Amino acid sequence: MPIVQIDMLEGRTVDQRRELVKKVTEAITESVSCPASAVTIIIREMTKEHLGQAGKLRADS
Amino acid sequence: MPIVQIDMLEGRTVDQRRELVKKVTEAITESVSCPASAVTIIIREMTKEHLGQAGKLRADS
Amino acid sequence: MPIVQIDMLEGRTVDQRRELVKKVTEAITESVSCPASAVTIIIREMTKEHLGQAGKLRADS
Amino acid sequence: MPIVQIDMLEGRTVDQRRELVKKVTEAITESVSCPASAVTIIIREMTKEHLGQAGKLRADS
Amino acid sequence: MPIVQIDMLEGRTVDQRRELVKKVTEAITESVSCPASAVTIIIREMTKEHLGQAGKLRADS
Amino acid sequence: MPIVQIDMLEGRTVDQRRELVKKVTEAITESVSCPASAVTIIIREMTKEHLGQAGKLRADS
């Protein structure tokens, strides 16, 4: 605990995901006072053809 | 808001996903009175070897 | 299959959720050609103090 | 996009959730270069009787 | 890892959830060879007015 | 119902997933008294570069 699921568009580098995990874990430990070891982060990437916003595929907007 | 996550078997075309996003967004805006711009839809596709129903892999049934 | 998870702000009536299930199921069956019996919809409601947008709690914006 | 779902034990204050949203949004915008307005965070709280770790209810450990 | 999310209708007892965590953890450790300490299970309960099946609220069927 | 989502590291065989579905379904039916036909299991696999634990990518630890 806490378990974090992040769904985002594909295309980020491994370094960006590394930074994402580091900074999001810090943000959580600082705000809800839990140890970093308690934080699990799942990152899921999707294509623009798997994301809908305002009724349209993101690939179409 | 609302955030919609749709997990379904792989194999649909981009046009089907396009239609899915359009129609599901309409369905939501009409039923819970929110603007289309508020609706985000995440579509995740899986293989039949990643879906279990009634104790079996869908690939086996 | 498909499994649909809808996270949205609390406050809708049972009738609105009834309509939401009906219309979203129709939208899915029409767009990805699956039977209505295959569609499961989970609706989760949250307070404005459990939703963050643009860095703020929705309750604060 | 990105959509963040945080599942954690109940018991945090509104201020902690406010801080959580602020800091997690900053962490994401800094690491994957997206605007804060693109970030949606859903916070779900659960009891210790709804969390299992290492085969036990958290309420029992 | 693995992270398990179980969404089910409300109404089970704490003992049933205790048994659920115990048995699901055993099932996972035996089938994918991971230690029990690696398994986290989140249990979410919902009412029949928050579950849609075959186009209807479960409360209506 | 129940709907089970299992997120785990990639690398398991189809047989392991087959066994996972069989055993997790049995575990659920035995503990919360529901028929096997009611249980749906979604298995999602991820790389070590998409999993964060204790502030680090699993690929780095």
Automatic annotation (TrEMBL), chains A, B, C, D, E, F:
Its EC number is 5.3.2.-. It is an enzyme of class 5 (isomerase). InterPro entries: 4-OT, 4-OT-like_dom, Tautomerase/MIF_sf. SUPFAM superfamilies: Tautomerase/MIF. Residues 2-57 form the 4-oxalocrotonate tautomerase-like domain. The active site is at residue 2. Belongs to the 4-oxalocrotonate tautomerase family. This is Tautomerase.
